Amino acid sequence: MASLIDEINRLINEYYIEPILQDSGYNVVNTITWAVILGIFVFGILKLLRRYEISISDRFIGSLIPYILAGASLRVIEDTGVVEPPLSYLLITPNIYFLSALTTAILLFVSRWISSTDERKDFHKVFAFFGSVWFVANIVTLLYLKDVVLPWVPFFVLGAASIILYLAYLVFDRAGSVMLKNKLNPPILLVHLLDASSTVAGVDFLGYYEKHVVPAYLIDLTGTALVMYPLKLSIFIPVIYLLDTRFEDDEESRTLKKFLKLVIIVLGLAPACRNTIRMTLGI
């Protein structure tokens, strides 16, 4: 019995604890685990929003964007090394996702309360304001701690992603597809192409390395991070297609579809933002 407990403790330490303490990245075991936890967490949040009658509209998704940027930039503050353990462990994946989600939820309900006390105050604007203040505060902190050393990085990341998205739009338009004319579909592809572009800039140009299991394998296999572009497109174009065609046309299905698209946006924009800020500041 003791040996079994020791083996379980060893596995937990090897696959979960050490990657957080050493910020060494992902492995197959913890990647699958975090994915399962994310799925449970996502549907928990969805139920919470339904309970408090917060609709997942395009405006709500837009008001959440500052929070995604704030969470990503908060992660970069940890990258600077200014935050010491054990507090720094809260700012390392996956812990920072839960910390950011908790902070966002608190500000969400604060915003809802403020807007309910004054009809002139739009809920989405109040909510977006708090997130924007948080994001700006993080950026000011980072600029105080570090200098901008590679100003070309954000221009490359945004430019490369925009060009590829535009080319994809032309292809779909000429094929007669309306997939990329849906309001949320281009942002989904854009944020993941931003993530791909930040990986190309970091791995191919600046000597960084990829921490995620599948991308790291494909980059090693091909010898270039350019493989991230076809990888992202081959994953998210079918995902968008399935979301747009496999849901019933009722209110509950539309809500679930929009929420899943929001999750996909978060998973692309957060690492893209973090990577871009890190490289820009030379961290």
Describe, in plain words, how this protein is organized in 3D:
The protein is mainly α. It has three domains: 1-53, no CATH class; 56-146, no CATH class; 150-283. The protein has helices at residues 2-21, 28-51, 58-79, 95-117, 123-145, 152-174, 185-205, 213-222, 228-245, 251-280. Helix 3 packs across helix 4 and helix 6 packs across helix 7. The longest helix is centred in the last third of the chain and has 30 residues, at 251-280. The radius of gyration is 20 Å and the shape is globular. The termini are far apart. The mean pLDDT is 86.
What layout of secondary structure does this protein have?
Elements: H1 2-21, H2 28-51, H3 58-79, H4 95-117, H5 123-145, H6 152-174, H7 185-205, H8 213-222, H9 228-245, H10 251-280
Helix pairs in contact: 3-4, 3-5, 3-10, 4-5, 6-7, 6-10, 7-9, 7-10
Question: What labels describe this entry?
Answer:
globular, 283 residues, mainly alpha, 10 helices
The count of strands amounts to 0
The main pleated sheet reads as: none
In total, the number of domains comes to: 3
Shape: globular
**Overall pLDDT metric:** 86
What is the helix tally?
10
**Helix and strand sequence:** HHHHHHHHHH
Pairing-aware structural class of the strands and helices?
A: mainly alpha
Return Rg in Å.
20 Å
Q: How much helix, percentage-wise, in residues?
A: over 70%
- Strand content range: under 5%
